[in-house]
User: Which sequence fits this backbone?
């Protein structure tokens, strides 16, 4: 199997994990990532080390577990991914959809906790914290209002490095268009 096919296979395994959401396979899923220098950048990220910018295996494990519990169905276009390989490094880009499921109802308490954390974060002035928490909450209410079955498009990009006889993610990023 050539390198592009191997990278596509790793992307397919990533998709399989998000499809099955089987917590008993989370350790196996985490083997798709390289060492602790890896990062996953979520849809809400804008500053390294800030909201939705996860560095290290432990942080990525926590967000994956949260995604599998609280996020809708992730559908990545594995076959349509553009994959480029240069030596022991590969990068890819593709599109996908987040299909809203009834799990959003379960996530609402989680979102309220996130809003509380935003308000409690003293790194910004009170007005900014209130505005950010309110904006976050209104977006979650809008999502709930749009209902089960609504599709949210996203872009998925990643960088992988060859590790031994296989490929491992070094960086993953989900990005959604501004709405």
Assistant:
């Amino acid at each position: 199997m050539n390198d592009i096919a191997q990278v596509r296979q790793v992307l397919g395994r990533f998709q399989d994990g998000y499809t099955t959401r089987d917590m008993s396979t989370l350790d196996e899923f985490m083997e798709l990532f390289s060492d602790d220098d890896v990062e996953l950048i979520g849809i809400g990220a804008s500053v390294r080390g800030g909201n939705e910018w996860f560095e290290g295996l432990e942080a990525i494990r926590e967000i994956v577990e949260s995604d599998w519990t609280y996020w809708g169905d992730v559908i990545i276009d594995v076959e349509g991914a553009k994959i480029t390989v240069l030596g022991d490094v590969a990068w890819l880009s593709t599109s996908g959809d987040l299909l809203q499921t009834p799990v959003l109802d379960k996530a609402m308490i989680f979102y309220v906790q996130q809003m509380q954390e935003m308000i409690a974060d003293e790194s910004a002035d009170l007005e900014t914290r209130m505005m950010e928490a309110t904006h976050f909450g209104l977006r979650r209410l809008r999502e709930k209002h749009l209902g089960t079955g609504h599709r949210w498009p996203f872009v998925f990009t990643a960088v992988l490095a060859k590790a031994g006889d296989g490929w491992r993610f070094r960086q993953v990023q989900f990005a959604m268009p501004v709405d």
Remarks:
- The chain is about 40% helix and 25% strand.
- The first strand starts at residue 39 and ends at 41.
- The chain has a mean pLDDT of 92.
